Amino acid sequence: MKLIMINDMREYILVGGYPKKGEYQHPGGQVTATRLLVEYAKVNKIKLHIIDSSQNSFPATSMIKRFEMAKNRIHSLLKILREKEVYGVVIFSSSGFSFYEKIFMCLLTKLYDTKSFLFIRSGHFINLNEKNLIPRIFNKILLKTPTYIGAQGNKWLDFYEKMNTDLSKVKLIPNWIKINNNYSYSTNKESVVFLFVGLLTEKKGVLDLFDIIEEYDDLKQYNFRFAGNGKLFDQLQKRKQINNLLNVELIGWIEGEDLLYEYKNADILILPSYAEGFPNVILEALNYRLPIISTNVGGIPDSVINNYNGYTFEPGDKTIMYESIKKLGESMNKRIEFSLNCLDLLQKNHNFNQNCKKIFDTFVD
Length: 365
What we know:
The chain is of the alpha/beta class. It has 2 domains: 178 residues, Glycogen Phosphorylase B (Rossmann fold, 3-Layer(aba) Sandwich); 157 residues, Rossmann fold. The strands form 2 sheets. The protein has a 6-stranded parallel beta sheet, with helices on both faces. Strand 3, helix 3 and strand 4 form a beta-alpha-beta unit. Helix 1 packs across helix 13, helix 2 runs parallel beside helix 3 and helix 4 crosses helix 5. It is globular, with a radius of gyration of 21 Å.
């Protein structure tokens, strides 16, 4: 039995997206969540041994490279577990290969008599298990391995219940952000701007959105800005040119001040994705008080409430997406009403200090 000294400087391992400074990575939600959790730990004198699990989605990392990176991470985990008195291990995971690697890490952690907290952050994990019987049966067994499991919303809780997971070890902790309490929504624009932020892939629903923009002439009065890159970028650029979509702008991948500019100058965020855990773009949009049109996947329905701060619809339902665009585009009063409700949801669900604290408090339950 490993003995842990309880003091004000407990040591933990954090496995998550934490690329080195200057190292190019698409700053997805896991990277942002990891960075904020590291910041919380530093302020609260929690010592973290960080194992970086970041990798680019575009272009995709080869499987050989992924195996090599996983082997190095597992080696780092074992080294720390052997040499340090670790109080707990927090592991962020995606779906697919990432999940199986992180489950193996949880098993190794258990062998060293240390608690693990697995936080699966990809909504594709839910879709995979709901649509495929064999992985679902196998994964039900594997989900017994972690000591604790994080859930980003009530749909995640429902999913874990269907997977026969012991709900006493599942902790509801929505994604977190530093809340900008002083920001005010701007309505002083010549035309209504709809903003999409993310990878340009089929799973993000951008083809559905483009179909609507092309089909309905009454949407030409609105501007649609796509901040992102991906395998569909060239295809969408061609569609824009062929159909003379002067109200569409493909910006490419941006970050930092350039991305903040887009949020500040947008009227509405639109995210027609087919699967999400809880996307960082929703948090950022809430922080800039943007009304949101989104699919009701993953943890999104807890923070985009239909007819309160936005409109939600089933993935692939282009009719409801079009109607939602029209309703918000035509009504400044509705946009202002929804914007005012964003801060309430941020403070209720996504407080940076409260949610990060919940993770570390889990280990002392």
